[in-house]
Design goal:
Elements (H helix, E strand, L loop, with lengths): L1 H16 L13 H12 L10 E6 L2 H8 L5 H6 L2 E8 L6 H21 L3 E5 L6 H8 L5 E10 L13 H4 L5
Antiparallel strand pairs: 1-2, 2-4, 3-4
Helix pairs in contact: 2-5
The chain binds flavin mononucleotide.
């Protein structure tokens, strides 16, 4: 029982202390860690367990530089040790709304895993303004639609507690 309580505390602490990290040291992140992060993503729930997420991992500085040209967060991408571009495989899609939710859950799993590993990361959505150009740049199959880019690396900033609305404001009813 005590063990369970400690596990729960650790989990809540992980969720609460995750912050978006946008500045990174130059240190690299090994392939094993990158695979652990993507594997965590794949354990997200999805409607009918259709697992509609697909990834492209970018470590090559030249490819990162090109990718950075499609967003105002270019410094975040260039500074990151790696970026994971997350796609929706529309050929596996059964209900767009639910598939988008599943991809969101996948990204959150990866961000929590990144934090757990002592790394930092950020979900970049603004880059979707240039979705088609990014898809061409990364040369993904036609049926893969860009959902986000997760930039990650060893953190070079510390973040405070963060800011959230109190539960009383988001809880509409307690019936
Ligand atoms: C769908 C989505 C899109 C986001 N897009 C960006 C982005 O383009 N650039 C960025 O710096 N942060 C982006 N973020 C990160 C948010 O700014 C961040 O999660 C929010 O401010 C709360 O801060 P925290 O993650 O540190 O708790 C995005 C987050 C989500 C969920």
């Amino acid at each position: 029982m005590r063990e369970k309580t400690e596990y729960m505390k650790a989990m809540l602490d992980l969720i609460r202390t995750r912050r978006s990290i946008r500045r990174f040291t130059g240190e690299t992140v090994g392939d094993e860690m990158l695979r652990t992060i993507m594997d965590a993503g794949t354990w997200a729930p999805s409607g009918l367990n259709n697992q509609p997420w697909r990834f492209v991992v970018v470590k090559d500085p030249e490819v990162k530089r090109r990718l950075s040209g499609y967003t105002k967060y270019s410094q975040v991408i260039e500074g990151a040790a790696a970026c994971i571009a997350v796609f929706l495989d529309v050929s596996r899609s059964y209900d767009r709304e639910k598939d988008l939710q599943a991809v969101g859950a996948c990204i959150q799993n990866m961000l929590l895993c990144i934090h757990y590993l002592g790394l930092g990361g950020v979900w970049l959505g603004e880059i979707l303004n240039r979705r088609e150009e990014v898809e061409r740049c990364l040369d993904v199959p036609e049926h893969c639609e860009l959902m986000a880019v997760v930039a990650l690396g060893h953190p070079d900033e510390t973040k405070g507690r963060g800011n959230r609305m109190p539960l009383e404001e988001v809880l509409i009813k307690d019936l």
